Amino acid sequence: MPTQTTLTCPQCQQHFDFIPTNNRRKYCSYKCKRRANQLAEDAESRKRYLNSPKGKAMKKRKAERYEQSERGQTKYRSRLLEKRLHTANNRKPCLVCFEPIPVGKQKFCGRECRQFNRLLFDLPKTAMVRKCLQCGSDSHFRQKYCSKKCQQKAVRQTEKSKITRRAASRRRRARKRNVFHQTVYLEIVAKRDNYKCHICRKQVKMDLHVLDNQAPTLDHLIPLSLGGDHTYANIRLAHRICNSKKGNRAINEQLMLFG
After folding, report:
1. Neighbouring residues of 46: CB distance < 8 A, sequence distance ≥ 6
2. Which of 65, 66, 114, 135 is least enclosed, having the fewest CB within 10 Å?
3. 0.70 cut: is pTM over it?
4. End-to-end CA, the chain
């Protein structure tokens, strides 16, 4: 008949009595056995399990059970109370009267400050005095410019607007000639031709004024008056003086390569 023996639990180091049977016993309880077999938090196998779909579902179920438990509800209420106390102690100032904003408000402390701010910025006569960036006049307005006319004038003076208007002007001239046309930009043609005049083979400076003799221009190999197209294939970069001297004459590209 088996006799009772005393063993020591390797997990909690407590002594317990055990009657030997066919099954070997090592721990005093199932709780100690589970703790001993539990993997460490930084173990690679545990990390892989927690990142797997099964592990994520397990964590979600645990979080839901914890939130529904009494301990989870108590912790949630304590966090909510801490957040409210933090908000009450660190309230932002009102944009009008600079008094602390009550809990639940966003920008203003009350209705009067909100109405005063709306009156200040909606009515042009009560707006603050500013200086127009275009005409330089001091007046009561909220935007950068005193009027829509000044705003449109400032937009037309930008470099992008100038490039667009010049391309539209060239396209309009070709349309009047009733020839095939497309939007052609001087900067794209200059970059394609390596900033060199196709007539004199000299460098073209792009920052010169339009009326300068060495200013960059677009020259049509076959002029528009002779039925040439207003396309990139029929246009080359040229100096203003070279383009004027060439006049209304077509240039054969085969002969131009030798000249």
Report:
1. 39, 40
2. 65
3. no
4. 121
